[in-house]
Design a protein that fits this description.
358 residues; alpha/beta; seven-stranded mixed β-sheet; Rossmann fold; 21% strand; single chain; 10 helices; Dihydrodipicolinate Reductase, domain 2; 2 domains
């Protein structure tokens, strides 16, 4: 069976990456691409690398244009997807690459995003530990999928095995991320101009204000054991995240260094075994051998999260360093991987573990 696909926000980075992956997918037909201010123009004017789609014209983003497809990808700015999702009730599968359907808490949405709150959808990070299984189990047969925030999924994948196994304390998580500016989208932002970011590293959203923090807390809470350790009064341990992203002069990529205290009694073998159990059988999340750590250059263009694990006994902390391509495993690749699972297709179809070098 061939599935008809519409991709909104097709002139942006996320939309373009979804199209790049789908263009090589044997089970889909890219029938419609849409935009807002760029509607009426040829897609190739905005995505000149997508040569196989040179004949495609961007259409206006409306519910009428998006309806009538088997699958719709919404690659729109945060707060804009929700206005279309109700109108797509008859679409068999809708995947939102924005934040509108990620959060379960209305209060968290109001605090970090604001505007109308929309119902949460199935989270599109297949390998994420959840209870006794993985998020993959929940994606099978899903009809509404929320693709992850790139920073959030990187940190969550980094630490969820330790949370699930009870070998780290989730109440004191510290993560610092080097990120490429493509994660902020394609629209013109003066602080992201080449002249502003070349030769410098620029922190932003410092002090607990980044919008991906509640998404990380939500994902790690789902990874907790069914009967977690508590304070003796039946209260689940708090998940506290100190999150500091830093823009660095690379077009795409995330290198996240995440640390958390070692849980009392956890041995070095216990700690490494937790990550090996979680990801030992995974294709797209790979734990490197002890003493090895990833580079962002190793994952460019790949749907791969490469992860290095260290145990700092002097500081009593576990250190996880994870590299992803923010536009692939962080967004578009996760969306297509989740689509494959939902439809019962081979999970890795049209996705690669191989990066581009140099």
């Amino acid at each position: 069976m061939t599935y008809s696909v519409a991709v909104s926000g097709a002139s942006g980075y996320a939309g373009g990456e979804i199209l790049r992956i789908l263009a090589a997918h044997p089970d889909v037909e890219i029938r419609t691409v849409t935009a807002h201010s760029n509607a009426g123009q040829m897609l190739i004017e905005h995505q000149p690398h997508l040569r196989s789609l040179a004949h495609v014209t961007l259409r206006e983003t409306t519910p009428e244009v998006l309806s009538g497809h088997d699958i719709v990808f919404l690659a729109l700015p945060h707060g804009q997807s929700g206005q279309y999702t109700d109108a797509l009730a008859d679409t068999p599968l809708v995947i939102d690459a924005g934040a509108d359907h990620r959060l379960e808490s209305m209060d968290e949405w109001a605090t970090f995003y604001g505007g109308d709150f929309h119902d949460p959808w199935t989270y599109g990070v297949p390998e994420l530990p959840v209870g006794r299984g993985t998020q993959r189990d929940l994606l099978r047969g899903a009809t509404r999928i929320a693709a992850p925030g790139c920073n959030a999924s990187t940190v969550s994948l980094s630490l969820a095995p330790g949370v699930a196994a009870g070998v780290i304390d989730p109440g004191d998580i510290v993560t610092v991320l080097a990120v490429g500016p493509s994660g902020a989208g394609k629209s013109l932002k003066p602080h992201l101009l080449g002249s502003e970011i070349l030769g410098t590293a620029n922190p932003y959203a410092v002090g607990g204000s980044h919008r991906h923090i509640p998404e990380i807390r939500q994902a790690l809470a789902a990874a907790m054991p069914e009967i977690p350790a508590d304070d003796g009064a039946g209260n689940q341990p708090a998940i506290r995240v100190s999150f500091t992203p830093v823009i660095v002069p690379m077009a795409r990529g995330i290198l996240a260094t995440s640390t958390a205290p070692i849980a009392p009694g956890a041995t070095d073998d216990d700690i490494r075994a937790a990550w090996e159990r979680a990801y030992g059988g995974e294709t797209f999340v790979q734990l490197l051998p002890a003493g090895h750590f990833p580079r962002t250059a190793d994952v460019l263009g790949a749907n791969t999260a490469l992860m290095g694990l260290a145990i700092d006994r002097d500081a009593n902390r576990v250190v996880v360093v994870t590299a992803v391509d923010n536009l692939v495993k962080g967004t578009a690749g996760a969306a297509v991987q989740s689509m494959n699972i939902a439809l019962g297709l081979p999970e890795g179809r049209a996705l690669t573990v191989n990066g581009v070098a140099p």
